[in-house]
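1st attempt posting a full record on here, be nice pls
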Amino acid sequence: MTQSTDTLAEKLGNALHQQGAKVTAAESCTGGGVAHAITAVAGSSSWFEYGFVTYANTAKHKLLGVSNELLVSEGAVSEAVVRQMVEGAARVANADYAVAISGIAGPGGGTDEKPVGTVWFAWYSPNGVKAKKYLLSGDRAAVREQAIKISLQELLHQVTGCNTV
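the predicted structure (as tokens):
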């Protein structure tokens, strides 16, 4: 049984509150959807202070410190870029946990190397940075919704250490 983003965000909030920890999000293709899910939870201001919607490369560079050279050489939808995004977000927000998302939600923008639905994620925790690429399916809304859910599921896993959420 899969859980809704509301349920995942509430469980994440409870786990962060118990630890006295904070989380942030650096979002591109999700356009603030992770932050929206998190702030829908009452009391979220105790564990979420701010997030970043860095849709354009200039925003990724200015707000999160992503290297312009890396953005040109690897492209925004890449492991190297989401790693820099998540590290920059955690640093700027002084957060214990963070997620970064960059992808191609469609319907256009895909290439043979990076088709529509390609989404890179990175998660920051006291244990380091983990990155993973997914190829999601469906229309723009479906890709974005799946990316939000994946972000929250893995954040919850990072905070609780449990695989079953």
